[in-house]
Structure formats: structure tokens, C-alpha cells
Amino acid sequence: MPDTRAQPTLLYNLYCGLTTIAGPLVWHKVRSKLQAAGVPENRQQERLGHASLPRPKGQLIWFHAASVGESLSVLSLIRRLAKRLPTTEFLITSGTPTSAALIAQRLPPRTRHQYPPLDSAAPVRRFLDHWKPDAGIFVESEIWPRLIVETAKRGTPLALLNARLSEKSVTGWKKRPNTARFILGHFNVFLTQNSRTADNLIDMGADADRIEPGTNLKAMSDPLPVDQETLTDIGTQIANRPLWIASSTHTGEEDIVLQAHRQLLQRWPDLLLLLIPRHPERRGEVLNLTNDAGMSTAQRSTGQPITPDTQVYVADTLGETGTWYALCPIVFLGGSLKEIGGHNPFEPAQAGAAVITGPGYFNFSETFEPMIETGGAVQINSASTLSDAVALWLSDESALAASQTAAKACVNTQESALDTVINTLCSRLSLN
């Protein structure tokens, strides 16, 4: 049971007052972003707690996630829970239009998506009055104080799943120990990605008896979807050319990738780089970089074909990454050459790829480290070392095959961990 002894702190009460006062301004900003993304009016109103769907009958388990990665990471868990609990319904909330669009394409049975309420009194209460969840599962670092407290007040058991907190966040909460203890006291269980997060939660005031070892759910997400028609079409355009992929790249990383590609072109003049920026809206910036590098470029979103002269194919669309991974077994995964934290290496590994990463993969250390240790992934730190890693796998089929096998083996070892997570959630949240 959550700790009901801790009382609201002055800081928490101040937060509640400020969010109420600032509510109209926050709503204006949030609504503007949703409108710009083409979200319909009735869906915009979900941020104010006005549901656009009816509540289903029976037990309802609510998952709250931040955005794309967190949302997609729980879909495989929901599918397994749906088999374990055949009459249970599911609700998943996430705050971005991108996540909403991708979730809509992959919704498990008996599951619906809504935008979460703003973290102020009226939206939160409207949301809870309508949905009346029987359990709430917050994913990763989604700690919204009022939403957590108001939900627990209604007797709804709560879990923090796949718990991950940045060092900056931990430091901030430690400066406010009473408030941290009050907020964390409303959770029945914490399932952490690693021991470091478990230690941080205890230091912040969480009850050690409620902390359970978990795993990184992103490592066990369903394989990314592959569009066979697109795969065939693009595969025909590429023909038999050598190919490598730089995926989920961020600002400052494309320069390094393009330098590596330039070095590789000296040895493989017909080599094609498939460049997938993490945020497609950066397409203009990325295209300027490829043009400045003097490389012939085709752009996916405008329908430009890959010709024999194309050196870089900018895949600036959403929802097609699985198709790109199916094209090529050599994937550099971005967010790792800068202090961003990396991205999920199991997505390319599930597709049969070997993985290259920079050193900044700290958000996925528990998945990358065993993969690197067994040879399924390689760590690089510069354009020249990136070029060397790609060159090895382009030139040595046996080395590439060994790395692909090792990467896939790391994925397979994680499968049983998901059943453990489900057992823990059902026990701690009284789900049956």
C-alpha cells in the first residue's frame, strides 16, 4: 500500500497553486502546438480532461507515457497483459501528436489512446472522474505531482514502470527531500531499469521495500513494422549497391556521419548512406549539411527516387524506420555521439542488424553494455572510428554475421524478463 502518513508539503501546495494560476497560459501553448499538428478539436480537449471516448466496462488499466519511445515500449507489455487478463481493458496516454499517430497504427486489442490532462486541478479531476482507472502505471520519468497524488487519493494503486531518472532530476529532487518522499510515497511499486536508478529512488525517499528489479521495456518492444511494398520498391532502386544506415541522428551528429561516409566512399564509390534524422522536422538542416558536403542527395518525403548517383538518402518520414532496418544489417544508432543518452539498440537488432554506437548511450547502458561485450554492437567516438567500423562489416561478411548473431542473442535473453514484470505488476497492483 502507498504511504499515507506523509503530508502535502508547502512546495507541493505551492506547485498546485501555481499550476492552477498558470493553467490558461499553459493551455494556450499546448493547444497551439496541437492545432499546428492538425489535431482535431475534440482531441485537443483531452488535455483539459474532456474524454473523446467512453469508458469501457470492467477493469481498466491506465498507462501514462511521455512520447514516442515510452509509448511504444509498453505496447508489447499490454499485449501480454491482455492475454493474462482476458476481460481487462487498457488506456494509454501520451502527450505528443507523433506518439498518438504511431500508437494509433499499433494499438493492441481492447486498448485506446488519449492525450493526458494538464497537471492542474480541473483537468486532472475531469480525467479521473471519467476514466476511473483501476490501476495507473507511469512509464519512465513521468512524475506529474498532481496527477499522481489525485489518482492515489481515489484508492487507485500506482506503479512507476521502467523507472529512469536523469542525474539532474535526481539532484533536484534530493534538494527537496520531503516533497520527493511525499510524491514517491503514493506509488505501490517501482520497477527500475537498473540498480543505479533503484539507489537513486531510495536516496530520494522511496521505500526500498517497494522497489523491484525490472528491465528496459524498450528492449522488449515489438519489432518495428515493415512495409513490404516500400521495402521492395526501395530495394529495387538500391539494387546491389553497398549500404549502411545512420539512424536517429541529432544535431551535431550528421556532420560526423557525413565525414565517415566521405571516407568510406573512397573505398566504395557506389556506397549509399541511408540517413534517418531522429526528428523529421530537421530535414532542411540535414539537407543543407549534405549539400554543403557536396553529396548527391535524395529525399524520402518528397518522393525523390534513389538513382545510381545518389550518395545519401534522407529518410525524413515517420513510421518507416522498421522498413529501413530491413534493408540493411549495418546500423549506426544516433543520440550517442553527443550527450543525449542514445536510443534503443534492440530495434535494429530485432531486424537482424549489427549496431554501432557512440559513447553517450547512458539511457540504455543496461542494454548496450552486454551487447557490446558479446560483439553485437561496437562503440566508436569519431568519424574515423565510425568509418573503420562500417568498413569492417562491409568487407568481412563473417565478422558481420557474427555480430548480427550476437545482437539477436541479446534480444532473446530479455524475453523472460517481461513475464517477470507482468507477474510483479499483477501482484503489487492487485490485478486479476
The helix fraction, in percent, is: 40-55%
Low-pLDDT parts are none
Radius of gyration: 23 Å
Report the CATH architecture of the largest domain: 3-Layer(aba) Sandwich
Discrete helix count: 19
Write the layout of secondary structure elements.
Layout: H1 10-36, H2 41-44, E1 60-64, H3 68-73, H4 75-84, E2 89-93, H5 97-105, E3 111-114, H6 121-131, E4 135-139, H7 145-153, E5 158-163, H8 167-174, H9 177-184, E6 189-192, H10 195-204, E7 211-213, H11 228-238, E8 243-249, H12 254-267, E9 272-277, H13 283-292, E10 297-299, E11 312-314, H14 321-327, E12 330-333, H15 346-350, E13 354-357, H16 365-374, E14 377-379, H17 383-395, H18 397-412, H19 415-428
Question: What can you tell me about this protein's structure?
Answer:
By secondary structure, the protein is of the alpha/beta class. The chain folds into 2 domains: 10-41 and 56-215 and 415-428, 3-Deoxy-D-manno-octulosonic-acid transferase, N-terminal domain (Rossmann fold); 228-412, Rossmann fold (3-Layer(aba) Sandwich), CATH 3.40.50. 47% of the residues lie in helices and 14% in strands. The strands form 2 sheets. Strands 3-2-1-4-5-6-7 form a 7-stranded parallel sheet, with helices on both faces. Helix 15 (346-350) links the parallel strand 12 (330-333) and strand 13. It starts with 9 loop residues before the first helix and ends with a helix.
